[in-house]
Design a protein that fits this description.
By secondary structure, this protein is α/β, with parallel strands linked by helices. The chain has 10 helices and 7 strands. It has one domain: 3-Layer(aba) Sandwich (Rossmann fold), CATH 3.40.50.970. The chain has a 5-stranded parallel β-sheet, sandwiched between helices. It has a two-stranded antiparallel ribbon with strand order 4-5.
């Protein structure tokens, strides 16, 4: 498959149309994870609105997206499916033997995915390199890097931020899926990093904080093209849209039982 974003994004999509899109995408994400019997569902649901808004209203052919929080690969695959870049047949192979859709982004097999990012803390440095390469090559387009809040426990992220600010990589936008939970507890309990926005601003980064499940706020922040490297902190909810998953750390890991799957599907389609 040759990489193409598909049809150009539609900046005129309405809030009602986006709600329909997210319902369909959530249902497909849940089905994909249920059929494969794997977890990481909570962090996929927290990131899905951000990914859908970015890919459906902003991202163009000369833009690049990097998923640094690789455990949300499922949300990225479903987003690419919603843009007709991946098919239902592709999603049915998720996490199965011989698949190109592994549990974390693959090193090859999906042309629109440039990097394998199973280990956290590397996506931002890779994105900085892409942005600098675009500058050297006189190329248009922006780089968008989606990270988790817990990922900022990694020193490599702060080293990359120093580099980004020093080089004034105007083409780069950092997105933080700030759902407040990570693999062993809350980000506050594991290694407190708040107030994140103040820290980014101290580095001289133009920083927005938005509701990561509010379409209007996401679209406005993602569409802002004022000069300077930018950070968008999306305040999200782990397991968003499924009552028994919301703000529950265990859904960083757990797969769905049949009963849980049926309840989750009913809730996201209700």
């Amino acid at each position: 498959m040759d990489f193409a974003i598909g049809s150009l994004p539609d900046s005129s999509i309405s809030a009602a149309e986006f709600r329909q899109l997210t319902r369909r995408a959530k249902a497909r994400l849940l089905r994909m994870h249920y059929e494969s019997g794997v977890g990481h569902i909570g962090g996929n649901l927290s990131a899905l609105d951000v990914l859908l808004c970015l890919h459906h209203t902003v991202l163009r052919e000369d833009d690049v997206f990097v998923l640094s929080k690789g455990h949300s690969a499922g949300a990225l695959y479903v987003t690419l499916w919603s843009r007709d870049i991946l098919t239902d047949d592709d999603l049915r192979t998720f996490h199965k033997d011989g698949t190109r859709l592994s549990g974390h982004p693959p090193v090859k097999g999906v042309p629109s995915i440039l990097f394998a990012t199973g280990s956290l803390g590397h996506g931002l440095g890779l994105s900085a390199g892409l942005a600098l390469g675009k500058r050297f090559g006189g190329q248009s387009g922006r780089i968008f890097c989606l990270m988790s809040d817990g990922e900022w426990n990694e020193g490599s992220c702060w080293e990359s931020l120093i580099f980004i600010r020093h080089q004034l990589l105007d083409q780069l936008t950092i997105l933080v899926d700030a759902n407040g939970l990570q693999g062993f507890g809350s980000t506050r309990e594991v290694a407190a990093i708040e107030p994140l926005a103040d820290k980014f601003r101290a580095f001289g980064m133009y920083t927005d904080e938005v509701d990561g499940h509010d379409f209007a706020q996401l679209r406005a922040a993602l569409s802002d093209q004022r000069p300077g490297p930018r950070v968008i902190i999306a305040r999200t909810e782990k397991g968003h849209g499924v009552s028994f998953m919301e703000n529950r750390m265990e859904w960083h890991y757990l797969p769905l039982t049949e009963a849980q799957y049926k309840q989750a599907i009913q809730e996201v389609l209700d």
